Inverse folding.
């Protein structure tokens, strides 16, 4: 009798695994293979020399010009300002301009 139980349970498990895969559930331990993340391009055409974040105010200096979210720079528009980078949108493409690292020397 116990062999019959194992056979039935094994058959049910195999059938449920097949049905789960057929419904698109798949293996929960495998990486998600959904839609690809939007392409993000790092660009050098936009030189970020300063970023100031104070409360809800975010300002970046790009190519010598102060900009905030929503401002246009040529054919690109600022969509986000983070502590070390600015994200822009140009023609449906997301661009990332990183803050330029600078060294400040203290003189006595």
């Amino acid at each position: 009798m116990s062999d019959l139980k194992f056979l039935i349970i094994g058959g049910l498990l195999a059938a449920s695994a097949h049905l789960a895969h057929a419904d698109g559930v798949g293996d929960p331990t495998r990486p998600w293979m959904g839609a690809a993340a939007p392409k993000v391009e790092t660009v050098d055409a936009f030189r970020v020399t300063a970023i100031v974040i104070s409360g809800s105010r975010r300002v970046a200096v790009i190519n010598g010009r102060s900009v905030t979210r929503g401002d246009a720079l040529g054919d690109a528009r600022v969509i986000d300002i983070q502590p070390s980078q600015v994200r822009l949108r140009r023609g449906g493409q997301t661009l990332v301009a990183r803050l330029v690292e600078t060294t400040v020397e203290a003189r006595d």
Summary: Residues 16 and 33 are 22 Å apart (CA to CA).
